[in-house]
Amino acid sequence: MKLDTAQFSDSDAEDVKPHEGAISVCFQCGHIHAFGPDLRFRPLTDAEIVEIAGDPEIVLIGNIRGPLRDLMSTYKTLSPEEVQRRIAFLVEQINKAERRKHAGN
């Protein structure tokens, strides 16, 4: 899948640039779109929708987007223990996705 590598990169963010056809997910609303030739967002084609259906990275984003947004908007009002618990949940979701990814290879 051609997920926008700015979201999933081990390199410095300055080195990562979107490219035509890269898929991106809005963490605010969850909308999935692609970059067009002018690097502006465009709707997904039918083929792209089929390609990303069930993609592990898309599923991961769907699993953590809501809890991450909630944590970011409320962390100042939460106890340190609750922040730690919520972060542990997010990390476990990422670890589960990684295990599934490696089990499939």
Task: Give structural notes.
- This protein is mostly helical and about 100 residues long.
- It has 2 domains: about 1-55, no CATH class; about 55-105.
- The chain has 3 helices and 3 strands; from the N terminus they run E-E-E-H-H-H.
- It has helices spanning about 45-50, 55-75, 80-105, and strands spanning about 25, 30-35, 40.
- The chain has a 3-stranded antiparallel β-sheet with strand order 1-2-3, with no helix packed on it.
- The longest helix is centred in the C-terminal third of the chain and has 24 residues, at about 80-105.
- The protein is globular, with a radius of gyration of 16 Å.
Topology:
Layout (H helix, E strand, L loop, with lengths): L22 E3 L6 E4 L5 E2 L3 H7 L3 H19 L5 H24 L2
Antiparallel strand pairs: 1-2, 2-3
Helix pairs in contact: 2-3
